[in-house]
């Protein structure tokens, strides 16, 4: 019997995508990880140092201070997204799913900032919050905050800049959780909700007893997407506060710290090895998040479902 | 069923909340756009008022066209986005088809291997990408951006399209096979059947490519290869004090994205929904 011919067509279909993906995504990722295990010594030679760079990043104060600062700022950034962006996005989705006229118009408008470049959004808000323009001074006066230094320049103070930027990011990205929740809510069979209404259940009860339990899987997806997006963020801080993530690194997050380490800033030259090390730590943080999601959350979901 | 009056109040309340939130969304965008057509005095004197014949001015736009080559940046963005999208959709469809249609030894492995890229951000490989591009002398070329964005977009594209291909009824393909059509011919026959999915993938892949700042900044910062986002970012930093020019630059950079959004919002929303299904 003749052997089956080698399935060339499968190779032809798969190869272009696999090659581009491997060469420009997977290979650089591993090259970067490998690079984080070396140090550049005199003459440009690469010296293997094992996990030495990671140890330096976590213990040498020159590195560990900015690292933990960026890490905790990033945690704050993430917590604000989880406590504001996702619940408000869910709330808007519930309203949009309530079968009112013109819902698609609201949906289109609320999603608009999400499709715009972070650079433009960040800069537009920077202008609006700028004390030079003073566009919201009348509002501050009415709130009795007209003389409050922090309120006048929210992006200029260590105590308020990070929170303000997080809120701008929430404002911009709320469309994503809203759409994902909306997609899940629409899939709930109408009869379920109508039956509950006939039984006299109010909107609040219907939400907690029917809608929310059925969209819990989406809550997990939104959470992990928020986590990955937040710990990979860069553009907003860079566009509004520059690579130095001012004032005094108060808005520095992992992305801007990575950029500065890699490319250098002011008088400090860039260090590609340490840059790769920071990227390695970011990868580790994101992988931990993904594993928690896959094993902690999704497995439990399956147990509940079956 | 709730009482009619209660129902009316409920609907009115929902509209009120959604209207208020829509206003919060539109206010900053309209404010920037409106003030970009005013003179410097009016921008600062009456920021909340629309331009009147007395305060109307397009000086900002004039500065923009004289100094920055925004047309050129725009063209760069257009080339990078269009070529990347064609590659993401076409190569993604080919790979998605292979994974959905053929049973072969490495099928599951390949599906998981490609899906890794959905979860892991490509930015974390930047150090490796920059060295690779430098070795191949691709730094400061649009090709570098196109290759990186294609690699970035493929995982989700393959994932979504393979699910769509898997849902196609087998009769059609079997009939074509009996007629002696080659596997390549069958692919060209089924491709039109998933056209909505192709549009969807294009729409959701477009936003991160068009709006990216990171890779243009790192791989292609030269004047000739600047994309519109990087061009706007640099311009905004340099002309910080020329408010008319800054507002004009912001408006001009936002408009193409908003137009694209209006054209593709249907596909985009379908894409977000499809991507969310597990």
TrEMBL record, chain A:
Q: Where in the cell is it found?
A: Cell membrane
Question: Which residue spans traverse the membrane?
Answer: 12-30, 75-97, 104-128, 161-186, 206-228, 274-296
Alphabetical GO CC annotations of the entry are:
plasma membrane
**A Pfam family this chain is assigned to:** BPD_transp_1
> Where's the ABC transmembrane type-1 domain?
71-295
Under the heading SUPFAM superfamilies, the entry gives: MetI-like
> PROSITE patterns from the entry?
ABC_TM1 (PS50928)
Protein family according to the UniProt entry: Belongs to the binding-protein-dependent transport system permease family.
This protein's name: Sugar ABC transporter permease
This protein's species is: Oceanithermus profundus
Mind giving the lineage of the organism this protein is from? Answer: Bacteria, Thermotogati, Deinococcota, Deinococci, Thermales
From TrEMBL, chain B:
Q: What topology does the record note for this protein and the membrane?
A: Multi-pass membrane protein
Which GO BP annotation is one of this protein's?
A: transmembrane transport
Which of UniProt's keywords are assigned here?
Answer: Cell membrane, Membrane, Transmembrane, Transmembrane helix, Transport
Q: What is its main location?
A: membrane
Q: Which domain of life is it from?
A: Bacteria
Q: Per the record, a Pfam family?
A: BPD_transp_1
Family membership noted in the UniProt record? Belongs to the binding-protein-dependent transport system permease family.
Q: Per its record, how is this protein called by name? A: Carbohydrate ABC transporter permease
């Amino acid at each position: 019997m003749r052997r089956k011919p080698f399935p060339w067509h499968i190779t032809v279909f798969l190869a272009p995508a696999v090659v581009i993906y491997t060469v420009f995504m997977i290979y650089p990722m591993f090259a970067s990880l490998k690079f984080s295990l070396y140090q550049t010594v005199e003459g440009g030679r690469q010296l293997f140092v094992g996990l030495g760079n990671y140890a330096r990043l976590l213990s040498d104060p020159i590195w560990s201070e900015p690292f933990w600062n960026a890490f905790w700022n990033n945690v704050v950034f993430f917590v604000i997204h989880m406590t504001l962006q996702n619940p408000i996005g869910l709330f808007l989705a519930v309203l949009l799913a309530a079968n009112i006229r013109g819902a698609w118009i609201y949906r289109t408008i609320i999603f608009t900032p999400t499709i715009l470049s972070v650079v433009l959004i960040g800069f537009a808000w920077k202008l609006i919050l700028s004390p030079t323009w003073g566009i919201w001074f009348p509002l501050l006066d009415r709130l009795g905050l007209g003389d409050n230094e922090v309120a006048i320049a929210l992006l200029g103070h260590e105590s308020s800049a990070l929170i303000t930027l997080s809120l701008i990011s929430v404002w911009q990205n709320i469309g994503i959780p809203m759409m994902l929740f909306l997609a899940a809510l629409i899939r709930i069979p109408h009869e379920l909700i109508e039956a509950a209404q006939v039984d006299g259940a109010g909107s609040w009860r219907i939400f907690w007893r029917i809608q929310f339990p059925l969209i819990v899987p989406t809550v997990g997806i939104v959470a992990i997407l928020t986590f990955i997006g937040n710990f990979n963020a860069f553009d907003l801080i860079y566009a509004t506060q520059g690579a130095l993530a001012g004032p005094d690194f108060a808005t520095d997050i992992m992305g801007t710290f990575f950029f500065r380490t890699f490319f250098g800033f002011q008088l400090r030259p860039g260090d590609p090895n340490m840059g790769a090390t920071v990227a390695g730590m970011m990868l580790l943080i994101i992988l931990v998040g993904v594993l928690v999601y896959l094993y902690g959350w999704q497995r439990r979901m399956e147990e509940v479902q079956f | 069923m709730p009482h009619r009056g209660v129902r009316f109040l409920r609907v009115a309340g929902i509209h009120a909340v959604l209207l208020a939130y829509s206003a919060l969304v539109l206010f900053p965008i309209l404010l920037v756009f409106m003030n970009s057509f005013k003179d410097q005095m009016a921008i600062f004197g009456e920021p909340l008022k629309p331009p009147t014949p007395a305060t109307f001015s397009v000086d900002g736009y004039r500065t923009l066209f004289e100094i920055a080559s925004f047309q050129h940046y725009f063209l760069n963005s257009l080339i990078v986005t269009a070529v990347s999208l064609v590659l993401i959709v076409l190569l993604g469809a080919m790979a998605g088809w292979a994974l959905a249609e053929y049973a072969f030894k490495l099928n599951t492995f390949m599906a998981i291997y490609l899906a890794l890229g959905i979860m892991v951000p490509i930015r974390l490989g930047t150090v490796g990408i920059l060295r690779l591009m430098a070795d191949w002398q691709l730094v400061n070329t649009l090709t570098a951006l196109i290759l990186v964005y294609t690699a970035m977009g493929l995982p989700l594209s393959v994932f979504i399209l393979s699910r769509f291909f898997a849902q196609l009824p087998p009769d059609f393909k079997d009939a074509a096979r009996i007629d002696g059509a080659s596997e390549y011919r069958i692919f060209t026959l089924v491709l039109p059947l998933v056209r909505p999915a192709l549009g969807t993938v294009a729409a959701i892949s477009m936003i991160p490519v068009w709006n990216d700042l990171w890779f243009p900044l790192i791989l292609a910062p030269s004047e000739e290869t600047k994309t519109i986002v990087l061009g706007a970012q640099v311009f905004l930093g340099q002309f910080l004090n020329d408010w008319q020019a800054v507002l004009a630059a912001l408006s001009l950079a936002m408009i193409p994205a908003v137009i694209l959004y209006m054209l593709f919002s249907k596909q985009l929303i379908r894409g977000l929904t499809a991507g969310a299904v597990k």
